[in-house]
Amino acid sequence: MTNHNLFQYIVIDHELNPPSFGGNHEVGTYTRSCISKSPRRALAMEEGTYSRRHEGVEGCPVLQTRQFWKGSKLLWEQID
Fold first, then answer.
1. Closest to 32 measured CA to CA, from 61, 3, 5, 4
2. Which of 37, 44, 47, 78 is the least crowded, having the fewest Cβ atoms under 10 Å away?
3. Which residue in 10, 6, 16, 15 sits closest to 77, CA to CA?
C-alpha cells in the first residue's frame, strides 16, 4: 500500500481560553484525523477509527478547519 492511494480527513478545532473563562488568552488545538483506502470511510470518521491529539490549553472552540486529502494532494478545505 502506497501513500498516494490513501484518503485522509483532518478536523482541527482551534481553541482560545479567554479571561472570562479564567484564562489569559492561551491557545490550543484539538486535532482528529482518519486515514482509509475508502473516501467514504475516511469522511465518516467512526468512533475508534480515527486518532486524536490535543496540544496547548483546552478552551472554547473559536475556529474549525477541515481538510480532505488523497495522498499528498489536498482535495478540499473548509474553514468555519
1. 61
2. 47
3. 10
How far apart are alpha carbons 73 and 28 in whole angstroms?
26
Eight-class DSSP state of 38: S
Cell of 18: 479567554
Those residues with Cβ within 8 angstroms of residue 44's Cβ, 6 or more apart along the chain or in another chain:
34
Q: What is the DSSP-derived secondary structure letter of residue 22?
A: T
CB count in 10 Å sphere of residue 74: 11
Per-residue pLDDT of 8-66, as tens digits, reads: 999 999 999 988 888 888 999 999 999 999 999 999 988 778 899 999 998 889 999 99
Spatial contact of 60 and 18, defined as CB atoms under 8 Å apart: yes
The Cα diameter of the chain in Å comes to 49
